[in-house]
Amino acid sequence: TLYTSSRAAFLCISHVFLSLFIPALLHKAYTASTSTTTTPMYTPYTPYTPTPLIILLYTLLLLTLRNPFSPKTLLEFPWLCNVLLLSSPLTHYSLYPPVLLQATLISVSIDHILWYVDISAYAVSGSFPVGVAKYLTWKTTSYGRVLTSTHHLWSMPLVLSQLRGYGGAAAARCPVTGEGLAWSYAVTLCNVALSRALLPMKAREGGEDVYLNVNLSREVWKDVAKFRFLRVPADSDDDPV
């Protein structure tokens, strides 16, 4: 399907907004219904940390180098790892619950850990044993895209350092909690469902079909060959909207 920039921008903004708003709304309803608070996790973070600013500037760089007017760039931006980049500054400025930043971090942690495996193995043997980072070697992958994929390696430790600023000594020792783990299920489900409903498996750009499969809402990543049997639907290439 051929997507215009305006249509792709609408889908991108809708997806990102809902992926942040729905978990926040659920969290607010939950805390109101249980009459509990997560006061330590809402402790304002020290204003001297550069983490949220670094992540925000990097996100702007990502959009710039990947061409923000390209339908492909817009359609693939709602990946959960990019939502994590937005969640960090939003949390810093008290616009997003810290426990949901923690949940988003947990949701992307498996993928990021697999990135460590792939990149380490590629540096030693020239191959990707898992395949999650193999797209870096595709002929269609630009140098700008390689540069703006590095957050898979550094965003997790940076956000962990940010979370240590909440909750005092306990959070300093372990910024990941059981509550964050529980909310990670809601965050993951919400993002995958939105990607499935709003975004296509592929989009046509420059006369070619571009593989998207955002948030693995259709199948496991195509380079992860060992798990191809997990392809979800028979109609996964259909346009969802």
Write up this protein:
With 241 residues, this protein is mostly helical. Helix content is 57%, strand content 3%. It contains nine helices and two strands. The protein has a two-stranded antiparallel ribbon with strand order 1-2. β1 (202-205) and β2 (208-211) form a beta hairpin. α2 (51-65) crosses α4 and α4 crosses α5.
What order do the helices and strands come in, and which of them pair?
Blueprint: H1 5-34, H2 51-65, H3 71-76, H4 80-92, H5 98-125, H6 143-147, H7 151-163, H8 168-173, H9 178-198, E1 202-205, E2 208-211
Antiparallel strand pairs: 1-2
Helix pairs in contact: 1-9, 2-4, 4-5, 4-7, 5-7, 5-9
Helix percent band:
55-70%
Mean pLDDT over all positions: 83
- Kindly provide the radius of gyration, computed on alpha-carbon positions and rounded to a whole number of angstroms: 18 Å
Rough shape?
globular
- Alpha-beta classification: mainly alpha
Q: What distance lies between the first and last C-alpha atoms, to the nearest angstrom? A: 10 Å
* Unreliable parts: 38-45, 229-241
> How would a crystallographer describe the biggest sheet?
2 strands, antiparallel
| Number of continuous helical runs | 9
Strand content: under 5%
* Spatial sequence of strands, sheet with the most strands: 1-2
> How many β-strands, per DSSP?
2
Order of helices and strands: HHHHHHHHHEE
Name the features.
single chain, 241 residues, 9 helices, disordered C terminus
